[in-house]
TrEMBL record:
Keywords: DNA-binding, Transcription, Transcription regulation. The keyword Chloroplast does not apply. This is LysR substrate-binding domain-containing protein. Belongs to the LysR transcriptional regulatory family. Residues 5-62 form the HTH lysR-type domain. InterPro entries: LysR-type_TF_proteobact-type, LysR_HTH_N, LysR_subst-bd, WH-like_DNA-bd_sf, WH_DNA-bd_sf. Gene3D superfamilies: Periplasmic binding protein-like II, Winged helix-like DNA-binding domain superfamily/Winged helix DNA-binding domain.
Length: 300
């Protein structure tokens, strides 16, 4: 059983601590200054610690109060966020973060299916997540309800849920005409390798796994995002490394060919990331179920 102080006393403490004033806290909570003072005093007595230092008309947090405030404020913030998700208007909207390549090459072509199935839901895409990833920021930035990105479920982050969608394995792809020239892996030495600047080691790792670690390609082209490298591969400019969700449709349609069976495991997976409180939103639950279903490999 949880040992929780009275909620009203916690609210009085949190408001008074933010404002550094019982009077301002009373105005925010629509009660009297005396009521706030009594609630805080009762909380201090219950906890057995002084949360404020009182010097005449001056009010400041004690060291114990300063340590207690962040946890209390965070708890109220989480309750407010979870409550907002349950609101009928908010429950119809969800902001989904993902990188531009995933959005362009897998998600956007499939979103009309979700919209036809759930016209009452509004999905807002935020592709700024890719920039945040490169800057090693939080995998789930503020303002994003859920995100699809590369993640290692074996190393979970506190307060974050993860549903795996796809593997992150890498394999070469190219246009059919170019694929016809690739009889063996060693033939890659005569072709242009399409690289991605923020993932410079991908070709090196794949070639090493293929036993071609010392191979020097005839030429290479470098791009900012995987989406650009894959478009260049579609246009016959060279051979790109791909992850399965990026090229599923092109492989099925024959626009791209995977000339070799070797697929390099990269660890982790493409996952749907979200905070536990997001699971209370109807739009999120519908989108989550749809994403997991759409990511499943087709049955024979």
């Amino acid at each position: 059983m949880r040992r929780l102080p009275p909620l009203n006393a916690l609210k009085a403490f949190e408001a008074a601590a933010r404002h550094q004033s019982f009077t301002a806290a009373a105005h925010e909570l629509n009660v009297t200054q005396t009521a706030v003072s009594q609630l805080v005093k009762s909380l201090e007595e219950r906890l057995g610690v002084a949360l404020f230092e009182r010097r005449g008309n001056q009010l400041s947090l004690s060291p114990r109060g300063m340590g207690y405030l962040p946890a209390v404020s965070d708890a109220f913030d989480r309750i407010a966020a979870a409550t907002a998700i349950l609101d009928e208007t908010d429950a119809r909207q969800i902001t989904l973060g993902c990188g531009p390549t995933f959005a362009m090459r897998w998600l956007i072509p499939r979103l009309p299916d979700f919209q036809r199935a759930h016209p009452e839901c509004e999905v807002r895409l935020s592709t700024t997540l890719a920039v945040r990833e490169l800057q090693s920021q939080s995998p789930l930035p503020d303002g994003v309800d859920a995100a699809v990105r590369l993640y290692d479920p074996s190393k979970p982050e506190p307060g974050l849920m993860a549903d795996p969608l796809f593997t992150a394995d890498l394999f070469p792809v190219c246009a059919p005409g170019l694929a016809a020239r690739l009889k063996t892996m060693a033939d890659l030495a005569r072709e242009t390798l399409l690289e991605v600047r923020h993932a410079p080691g991908e070709w090196r790792d794949w070639l090493s796994a293929a036993g071609l670690g010392s191979m020097v390609p005839s030429s290479s082209l470098s791009f900012d995002f995987h989406a650009f490298a894959l478009q260049a591969a579609l246009d016959g400019a060279g051979v790109a490394l791909a992850r399965r969700p990026f090229v599923t449709d092109d492989l099925k349609a024959g626009r791209l060919i995977a000339p070799f069976a070797l697929s390099l495991p990269k660890g982790g997976a493409w996952c749907l990331l979200y905070r536990p409180e997001a699971a209370g939103g109807s739009a999120f639950l519908k989108l989550r179920d749809w994403l997991i279903g759409a990511a499943m490999p087709p049955t024979a």
